[in-house]
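Bit of a strange request maybe. I'm writing a small parser for C-alpha cell strings and I need a real example to test against, not something I typed by hand. Could someone generate the C-alpha cells for this chain?
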Amino acid sequence: MEKLTANEQRIINSLCKNNDCGAETKDELKADNMTWFNEVDIQTMGFSKHQAAGYMSSLQKKGLITDNEDGNEWSWYVTDDGIDLSNLS
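Reply from user aminoacidic:
Good idea to test on real output. This should exercise your parser:
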C-alpha cells in the first residue's frame, strides 16, 4: 500500500468525497467512478498551481490518479487504488 503525505491524503479524500455521482461508499464510487477533476480543483484546496501539478504528478506515479488521455481538461480521475485509500466507508 502506498504511503501518502498528509496533503496527498487530503486531496484523495476530497476528490472522492466530492464525486459527481453521489456515491457515499468506496464500493458505490468504484461502480460509478465520477471523480473527474483537473488542476484547478486541487488549487481550490489552497494549493498553488505549481503545488497542484506536483501533487498530481506524485499521485499519478503512485497509481492513485490517472488521465484517460482524451485531451479533455476533465480527464483526470481517482483510480480504484486511490478510492481504496480514501476516507469513504
